[in-house]
């Protein structure tokens, strides 16, 4: 074989082993017995040790030096493998293994602390996670420590660039939110019980409407909804409250956006660096456009209103009031349940706090107080328990520092994609009114998803939309939508 062929063969096995590690993580959150946490931590550490050895194998450097690219695909393969090798060789095997072990343990400790509203039970473990992530950032950094971690999730982005985007968004979002909250329109919650089994059936119907391939996926329950895997095994989870069906419905649609991205990638890229989403920002654009621009649109909520009435009986409101309720703006505590105006403000809070944690400007012992103070300033309400505050998200427990800003960046990308997609496919709303998102899915598949990691993140969005990604389309969409709903 040529050097290129040998390198790709090595990479295929590494990608397959990484998928196995992902299955272990899925099992830990969905099915693993609680008593297996220590054993699973050792298993995760062991497979990470093997993966780290493969990613830093000296043969990779030799193959990269001798391999020749014949086209755009092979050139991108070599670029991504070289980037991965460069990062992996900077991290000691000891550190990679210890991070895998402690973040596996930390996840269970976080879940129990959250359930018991006991922040003190989680803080010592979080301190260890932060210490290790700081050490990792020091190994990788050529400047800003946070940028080194951010690069794992949004290659090429910097905290300075993202902060500049957030600064442009914050004022318009707060101004629009304040006008909405001052409106006389006040959507009221549904006063019914929504049985779990009926909710799960409806979640499956919604997933099907957005093109989820059930022969290559499954829906389960977890503490925090997530999507896992890809290709022919792209799984999703949700969670259910019998008093609030929208948390289940829209978390399912959100995760379906992630999973259908993975399912649509060119099969020829399977087990290569191109065979999964190019970045978490681009990935999040797929989940957010499904959840919000499509799933919370008036045509789709009109269809959903009928389906929920069939499943749960008379809801007591008409389709227009139902649409307003689905898009209700309120000062809630929980990011995953927040409206489209407050959501990005939630992310900005986390972005600032985790930057300070990694920089050493904020210590873990002071995190809860810093969170609660900032939350009161940004949202005007007081956090009364840890599950409303810094314990609500799983991300920091598993070491995902640098991940949070990609959620808001995904919203920016989704705004751009929505503008381009609707200009190209005028029948989208008519089909959404029938519970059919297939025209939108087809456009996203053809213009973005099929390419996987072929292009860098911003180039991926630019190629799909035909213009440079920016926050303008998102802000315009939000303004038009919420001014209409709230009669502003």
UniProtKB/TrEMBL annotation:
Q: Which InterPro entries match?
A: Peptidase_M32_Taq (IPR001333)
The keyword Protease is assigned to this record:
yes
Q: Which GO terms describe its biological process?
A: proteolysis
Known cofactor(s): Zn(2+)
- Tell me yes or no: is Repressor among this UniProt entry's keywords: no
Positions bound to Zn(2+): 254, 258, 284
- Which E.C. number(s) belong to this protein? 3.4.17.19
Give one Pfam hit by family name.
Peptidase_M32
Q: Which keywords fit this entry according to its UniProt record? A: Carboxypeptidase, Hydrolase, Metal-binding, Metalloprotease, Protease, Zinc
Record field: catalytic activity: Release of a C-terminal amino acid with broad specificity, except for -Pro
User: What are this entry's molecular-function GO terms?
Assistant: metal ion binding; metallocarboxypeptidase activity
| Top-level taxon of origin | Bacteria
Q: Which residues form the active site?
A: 255 (proton donor/acceptor)
What does the note accompanying the cofactor annotation read? Binds 1 zinc ion per subunit.
Give the protein family.
Answer: Belongs to the peptidase M32 family.
Q: What does the protein in this record do?
A: Broad specificity carboxypetidase that releases amino acids sequentially from the C-terminus, including neutral, aromatic, polar and basic residues.
Q: What is this protein called?
A: Metal-dependent carboxypeptidase
List the taxonomic lineage. Answer: Bacteria, Pseudomonadati, Pseudomonadota, Alphaproteobacteria, Rhodobacterales
């Amino acid at each position: 074989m040529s050097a290129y062929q040998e390198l790709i063969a090595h990479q295929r096995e590494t990608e397959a082993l990484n998928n196995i590690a992902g299955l272990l993580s899925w099992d830990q959150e969905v099915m693993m017995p609680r008593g297996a946490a220590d054993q699973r931590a050792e298993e995760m550490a062991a497979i990470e040790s093997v993966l780290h050895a493969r990613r830093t194998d000296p043969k990779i450097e030799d193959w990269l030096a001798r391999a020749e690219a014949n086209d755009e695909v092979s050139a991108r393969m070599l670029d991504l493998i070289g980037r991965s090798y460069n990062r992996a060789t900077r991290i000691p095997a000891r550190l990679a293994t210890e991070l895998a072990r402690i973040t596996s343990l930390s996840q269970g400790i976080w879940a129990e602390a959250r359930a018991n509203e006991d922040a003190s039970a989680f803080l010592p473990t979080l301190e260890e996670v932060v210490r290790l992530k700081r050490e990792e950032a020091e190994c990788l950094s050529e400047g800003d420590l946070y940028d080194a971690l951010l690069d794992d999730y949004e290659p090429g982005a910097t905290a300075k660039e993202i902060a500049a985007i957030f600064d442009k968004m914050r004022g318009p979002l707060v101004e629009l939110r304040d006008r909405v909250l001052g409106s006389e329109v006040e959507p009221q919650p549904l006063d019914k019980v929504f049985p779990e089994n009926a909710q799960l059936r409806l979640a499956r119907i919604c997933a099907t409407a957005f093109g989820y391939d059930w022969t290559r996926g499954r829906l389960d329950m977890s503490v925090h909804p997530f999507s896992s895997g890809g290709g022919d095994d792209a799984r999703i989870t949700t969670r259910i409250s019998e008093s609030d069906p929208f948390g289940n419905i829209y978390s399912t649609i959100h995760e379906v956006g992630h999973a259908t991205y993975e399912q649509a990638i060119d099969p020829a890229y399977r087990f290569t660096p191109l065979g999964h989403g190019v970045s978490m920002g681009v990935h999040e654009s797929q989940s957010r456009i499904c959840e919000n621009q499509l799933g919370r649109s008036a045509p789709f909520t009109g269809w959903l209103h009928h389906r929920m009435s069939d499943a749960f009986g008379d809801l007591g409101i008409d389709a227009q009031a139902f649409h307003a309720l689905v898009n209700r703006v309120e000062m809630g505590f929980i990011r995953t349940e927040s409206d489209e105006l407050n959501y990005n403000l939630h992310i900005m809070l986390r972005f600032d706090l985790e930057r300070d944690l990694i920089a050493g400007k904020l210590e873990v012992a002071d995190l809860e107080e810093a969170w609660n103070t900032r939350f009161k300033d940004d949202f005007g309400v007081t956090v009364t328990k840890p599950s409303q505050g810094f314990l609500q998200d799983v991300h920091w427990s598993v070491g995902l520092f640098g991940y949070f800003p990609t959620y808001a960046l995904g919203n920016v990308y989704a705004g751009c994609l929505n503008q381009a997609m609707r200009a190209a496919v005028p029948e989208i709303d008519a089909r959404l009114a029938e519970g059919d998102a297939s025209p939108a899915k087809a456009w996203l598949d053809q213009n973005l998803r099929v390419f996987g990691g072929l292009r860098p993140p911003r180039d991926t969005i630019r190629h799909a939309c035909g213009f440079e990604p920016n926050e303008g389309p998102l802000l315009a969409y939000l303004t038009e939508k919420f001014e209409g709903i709230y009669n502003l």
